[in-house]
Amino acid sequence: MAPLGPSPRRRLSLLTRRDKVVLGWMVGVPLLLDLALIWGAAIVSFLLSFTNWTGIGGITASNVVGLQNYEDLFDGTYPFFWPAVQHNLLWLAFLMFVATPLGIFMAVLLDREIRGTRVYQTVFYLPVVLSLAVIGLIWQLQYSVDNGFVDNALRALGNENPPDWFGDPRLNIWSAVVAASWRHVGYIMILYLAGLKAFDPTLREAATMDGASERQTFFHVVFPAMRPINIVIVVITAIEALRAFDIAYIINGGRNGLELLSTLITNNSISESNRIGFGSAIAVVLLVISLVPITAFLVRMTREEQT
Amino acid sequence: MTIATVVRPVAVAVRPRRRLRPRRVLLYGFLTFMAAIWLFPLVWAIYTALRPYADTQQHGYVSLATSLSIDNFVNAWNQANIRQAYVNTAIVAVPGVIVTLLAASLVAFALSRFSWRFNLLVLLLFTAGNLLPQQVIIVPLYRLYLLLPIPPPLSDNGLLYDQYVGITLIHIVFQTGFSVFVLSNYMKTLPQELMEAALVDGASVFRIWRSIVMPLCRPALAALAILEFTFIYNDFFWALMLMKTGDRRPITASLQNLQGQFFIDTNLLAAGALLAAVPTIVVFFVLQRQFVRGLTLGSTKG
After folding, report:
1. Beta-strand (E) ranges in chain B?
2. Higher-confidence residue: A302 or B35?
3. Adjacent-strand bridge partners of A51
4. How distant, in Å, are the alpha carbons of A280, A282, A305, B207, B244 from that of A45?
5. How far is CA B197 from CA A8, A28, A125, B216, in A?
6. Considering just the CA atoms, what is the radius of gyration of chain B in Å?
7. What's the ipTM?
8. Could A201 and B38 be called an inter-chain contact, meaning their C-beta atoms sit closer than 8 Å?
9. B129 contacts A38? CB cut-off 8 A
10. Can you tell me whether residue A64 is helix, strand or coil?
């Protein structure tokens, strides 16, 4: 439905020329900044990915290397690319199949008439207000070999050689995603709980009256009816997984088992190294992957606008 | 509504007494167990931060404390210059939130209350821009920040890089996308008639935005302000990449320095991390309802 009802064109003609100019500025200035700093930057990333520019001096024709950067990425010349892709996928899978379902499950449990439900809710979404950097440090206090809780508790139980959760390159990606899940579960729980609260209770009651068990009611009535919010949650989970950066960076700078596409970009192009063209190629890969969940979200938005 | 309220009490009164008792106990048991797990990392951080270093060295970390004090907090505060980091955060976050909400409310107003040809496209551009991983655009942005000349009152090195104004600018641009999305959804739910009447009476669009739409949006703006404050407060990435001088880094990005400084003294690290977390936790407890509303406004309509 058009915002101004059945005949938008007539309404728009009520505006004076000055009004139209004012409206143009209202949208134009923020839009221009958004286009320049975000979309413009994304396009420049794309262009830079075909060069070997190091950031010193201008870019000349001799800097253009075609698809060389992408070849180095895909054929394994650069050894960290495929591991990083794997880590991102693992991060995504863990959030999607462990943390997100757990968040939904907690929301469903807390949606019943439960005494002290607000206390439980507060506990579960407390981590949501913390930054991922703080979360990385808080979990350091759990995971540290010498000074952390887990390994000291394991030693007290007789395990002489407890794992180095954040140091062991085969292990640390799992430790990090568990820490990230501590926050993600609460986030999903809030979103889903809001959706459940808005759910029409008569539908559920009808199902119960027909003799459906609680599980049947959830999977056959509630869950399908929550489709719009399910999409949002899947999209948010995917984007969180692609954005993962802060925890890995604060643990060890995103190295030694914690390589993610995001940390490869900054480590190649900003920190110590200045392989700007190469880092941009990684950024383009991340951009292309991100466009999948983003497009899913936009399609849903467009449909809603048109109904 | 009436049927629902009539049916419900009966169903609730009959069922739990018969079969559901053990399941109910199981439910509470499970929730309490999960809540304990969820709270543990935070409680442990507080416990560690309150223990003197000597105490943990002598008895180990998993032990009963022989003494507790706030010395670690005091030391972290002094050594890591946390006061300055808070000030830096305020310098970035306060104008950041205000300008973001102003800009987003103007855009959302123009997009949601008037029909243009490119309405949807513009809305999609803003929303999608906010959904991109920040790392996708950081390389060109970093170069741009090193290139673009900025006059002295705004910047003391003539650039956007390593400046409060640079960090604030990218926050505003990035967060406006999210706020436009939330506010335009909200504005679509507002009654149409008031605005149309004002338009017919000859009020200017600016006047309608200021005197009709903005007051009606107050609940959404309040929720969004709190949420945006937490987003900007919690930012690690932009400040880490675009602010080089340690003394200028906002609190969350300055955790990176903390990490290096207190590498050996875990207790001090715990205290520093908690100091960085306290403001958002306080905001959360005081304004929990707005915070949750802000988050859910983004995913559901109205």
Report:
1. none
2. B35
3. A64
4. 5, 9, 31, 41, 22
5. 15, 26, 43, 16
6. 25
7. 0.90
8. no
9. yes
10. strand
pLDDT tens-digit readout, A273-299: 789 999 999 999 999 999 999 999 999
Residue A118: how many other CB atoms lie within 10 Å: 11
Q: Out of B31, B128, B169, whose CB is closest to A294?
A: B128
Instruction: Tell me the chain A residues in contact with residue B142 when contact means C-beta distances shorter than 8 Å.
Output: 269-270
CB A243 within 8 A of CB A16: no
Annotated domain spans of chain B = 2-71, 84-297
Q: Are residues B295 and A190, on separate chains, in Cβ contact within 8 Å?
A: yes
> Which of these ranges, A53-62, A74-83, A87-96, has the smallest mean pLDDT?
A53-62
Which residue in A35, A223, A245 sits closest to A132, CA to CA? A245
Q: How remote is the C-alpha of A170 from its chain's centroid? A: 23
Angle at A129 between CA B163 and CA A116, to 5 degrees: 165
Q: Name the 3-class secondary structure at A51.
A: strand
CA distances from A118 to A110, A124, A147, A302, B257 (A): 9, 10, 34, 35, 37
CATH class of B84-297: mainly alpha
Q: Which tens digits make up the pLDDT trace of A116-153? A: 888 999 999 899 999 999 999 999 999 998 888 999 99
Chain B residues near residue A40 by CB distance under 8 angstroms = 140
Three-state secondary-structure class, residue A197: helix
| A170/chain B closest Cα distance in angstroms | 23
Mark B209-244 as b/e (b = at least 16 C-beta within 10 Å): beebbbebbeebbbbbbbbbbbbbbbbbbbbbbbbe
Stretches where chain B sits below pLDDT 50 are 1-18, 301-302
A260 SS3 class = coil
CA-to-CA distance for B199 and B202, rounded, in angstroms? 5
Residue numbers in B near A113 (CB within 8 A): 12
Residue B120 in tokens: 């949807």
- Give the CA dihedral B185, B188, B190, B195, nearest 10 degrees: 130
| pLDDT 10s digits, B57-71 | 888 888 888 888 888
CB contact under 8 A, A131 and B280: yes
Q: Which residue of A has its CA nearest to B256?
A: A250
Q: Which domains does chain A have, with CATH numbers?
A: 1-39 (no CATH), 49-306 (1.10.3720.10)
Q: String of b and e for B137-174 (b: at least 16 CB within 10 Å)?
A: bbbbbbbbbeeeebeeeebeeebbbbbbbbbbbbbbbb
Contact between residue A137 and residue A250 where contact means Cβ atoms under 8 Å apart: yes
User: For the residues of B109-121, what is the DSSP string, one character each?
Assistant: HHHHHS--TTHHH
Distance between CA A246 and CA A131 in Å, rounded? 9
Alpha-carbon distance of B71 to B181, in angstroms, equals: 45
B247: which 2 tokens?
């003394």
> Which residues in chain B have Cβ-Cβ distances shorter than 8 Å to A250?
236, 255-256, 259
> For residue A199, what are the contacts with CB-CB under 8 A and spacing of at least 6?
A222, A225, A226
